[in-house]
Design brief:
- This protein has 2 helices and no strands.
- The chain is mainly alpha-helical.
- It has one domain.
Length: 86
């Protein structure tokens, strides 16, 4: 092997090593991006479900009040109590 070929082979080896590091870094970033995307959506869904369970009694009360099956006097008293609790 001539010195010129050896030099070319060493430069090629260094370039391949650098490319390998870059590709590993890109792959690692893509994995973390995927994990963070799943975490992001899990948090959004969990907060939505939690908010629903938090406001569910108020929603059920309002649905029952406006469904027309309750007395007007009872519904107005219930509405006043609901507003006071807020």
């Amino acid at each position: 092997m001539t010195p010129e070929e050896k030099s070319l082979l060493e430069r090629t080896y260094k370039m391949v090593e650098e490319n390998n590091r870059i590709l590993l870094s890109i792959r690692r970033s893509a994995r973390w991006g995927s994990v963070m995307r799943y975490v992001y959506w899990a948090v959004i869904i969990a907060l939505s479900v939690g908010a629903y369970y938090f406001i569910q009694p108020y929603v059920n009360f309002l649905v029952s009040e406006f469904s027309g099956t309750a007395d007007n006097a009872t519904s107005s008293q219930g509405m006043i109590q609901l507003l006071k609790s807020l």
